[in-house]
Design a protein that fits this description.
Layout: E1 4-15, E2 18-30, E3 35-39, H1 46-54, E4 61-66, E5 69-70, E6 78-81, H2 94-104, H3 109-122, H4 138-151, E7 156-160, H5 168-185, E8 188-192, H6 196-202, E9 205-209, E10 216-221, H7 233-246
Parallel strand pairs: 3-8, 3-9, 6-7, 7-8
Antiparallel strand pairs: 1-2, 1-4, 4-5, 9-10
Helix pairs in contact: 2-3, 2-4, 3-4, 6-7
């Protein structure tokens, strides 16, 4: 049984101008511990699809199944990391932010703080446990967000362009860090990105979506050893293939 299944997902937006199709007949499946990237042009519904998997949005047609069970809203089996740095609570320290989900589950203070510190160590921020978000760089804030999403041990990690707002060097560092974290935790990851090089670097498999309304155009399996070399001929060949599949829509990204 696949760990996650998207079964014929369609969504229609209600707008002042009438009904607008957002997603149409999206289907794919993935195994436990697989790292799946979703790429596509702006407006194709990548983030909407991730929000449906997270349980924040209900599709008009179709369903998401996780471990064989239909998704009926958000749940502690899924951790979510967004692009926006404001996802952290500004009044909580890094440790307090990471411990939040465990606090909501009623985990005793000593245990949740020990777990939170362990997750901060995983993202190499244990020395900033007492720092508040405004004391941290954008990349460090995203590391805290990843640690928070992992702290309550969800089976699935959903990531919506989490590094898009970072500068190029920080983004490269964060990609390497995420690859290391994934190798350590073996979470099932769905990662939305515009960036085809990022997809080739991170993914086991890439789902390529069509322009609006979004549907699955094709899937590409990335058969490269890890850690991956972004300057290798094979890496660049996969990048070119994804750009070709995205067509004219990819040239601006």
């Amino acid at each position: 049984m696949p760990h996650i299944e998207a079964r014929d997902i369609s969504l229609i937006y209600d707008t002042p101008g009438g009904a607008v199709p957002g997603l149409r007949g999206v289907s794919f499946a993935m195994e436990a511990s697989e790292f799946l990237c979703i790429v596509g042009p702006s407006g194709c519904g990548k983030s909407t699809l991730l929000n449906i998997i997270a349980g924040f949005i209900t599709p008009n047609v179709g369903e998401i199944r996780i471990a064989g069970q239909p998704v009926r809203g958000s749940g502690m089996d899924r951790g979510v990391v967004f692009q926006d740095f404001a996802q952290l609570f500004p009044w909580r320290t890094a440790l307090g932010n990471v411990a939040f989900g465990l606090e909501m589950k009623g985990v005793p203070k000593a245990e949740r703080e020990a777990t939170a510190l362990e997750q901060l160590r995983l993202v190499k921020l244990e020395h900033f446990a007492k720092s508040y978000p405004h004391h941290l760089s954008g990349g460090m804030q995203q590391r805290v967000a990843i640690a928070r999403a992992l702290a309550y041990n969800p089976a699935v990690l959903l990531m919506d362009e989490p590094f898009a707002a970072l500068d190029a060097l920080t983004r490269d560092d964060m990609q390497r860090l995420l690859a290391d974290v994934w190798r350590t935790t073996r979470k099932t990851v769905i990662y939305v990105t515009h960036n085809v090089a990022e997809a080739v670097y991170l993914a086991d498999r890439v789902v390529v979506m069509t322009p609006h309304p979004g549907t699955v155009k094709t899937e590409v399996t990335i058969k490269l050893p890890r850690p991956r070399d972004p300057l290798s001929v094979e890496f660049l060949d996969y990048q070119k293939e994804l750009l070709r599949l995205l067509g004219q829509d990819a040239k601006g990204h």
